[in-house]
Amino acid sequence: VPRLQGVRYRVMPDRIEAGTFAIAAAITQGDVTLSDVVSEHMDPLTHKLREVGVVVEPCGRDYRVKGSPEMYAVEIQTLHYPGFPTDLQAAFGALLTQAQGTSVIHERVYDRRLQYADELLKLGATIRVSGQTATIQGPTPLHGRRVHALDIRCGAALTLAGLAADGVTEIVDIHHIERGYEGIDAKLRSIGARIERVVAV
Prior bond to 13 cis, omega within 30? Predict the structure, then answer.
């Protein structure tokens, strides 16, 4: 272009962070309203949450999620936007450990995106991984243990699973989580989660 000029631009909200908190509400059977959400960006997640049995009510820039005591198995396939986001696949996998029946996740975007399954197994989940597909049997009670955040998405999934687990879940290598979520512990505390950051000595 021959010339550039300044414009005023509003940065779009992060649909992955919003989706993570939506799944947090679902896995804890909570009732949470997220603000400043572009609802159409959330459409693939909205569809799957409703299919699971979760109440989702977009209203303008607000996005209400109300969990259900009864959730049902679904099949998901990750795709590039506007498909189901691969960056929410692990968190949704944690949710599906609490759904009735056999759920199937097909990862179609990246390799090695199902490693979080081994960490969820430590908490009591029933998951079988074959290639790029994870099969999850639920619902299974989760029990707190020491687990490792292998990457950002694994860390998010373990955080949500920990909220649903009995007892104390300790997540190490949280620097991975911090790469993708600013102040996730404080934000979760603000909606009632019992979560704290512990500094190793």
Answer: no
Q: What is the CATH number of the domain that holds 53?
A: 3.65.10.10
Q: Confirm whether 152 is domain-assigned.
A: yes
Give the pLDDT band of residue 136 (cuts 50, 70, 90): very high
CA 64 – CA 170 distance, rounded (Å): 29
**What is the mean pLDDT of the segment spanning 79-106?**
98
Domain assignment present for residue 191? The answer is no
Domain that holds residue 103: 15-182
Residue 168 CA to residue 170 CA, distance in Å, equals: 6
> How many domains is the chain partitioned into structurally?
1
The pTM of the full predicted model, rounded to 2 decimals, is 0.94
Tell me the per-residue pLDDT of 30-79, one tens digit each, with 9 for 90 and over. Answer: 999 999 999 999 999 999 999 999 999 999 999 999 999 999 999 999 99
CA–CA distance, 139 with 147 (Å, rounded to integer): 20
- Nearest C-alpha neighbor of 127 from the set 111, 114, 146, 144: 114
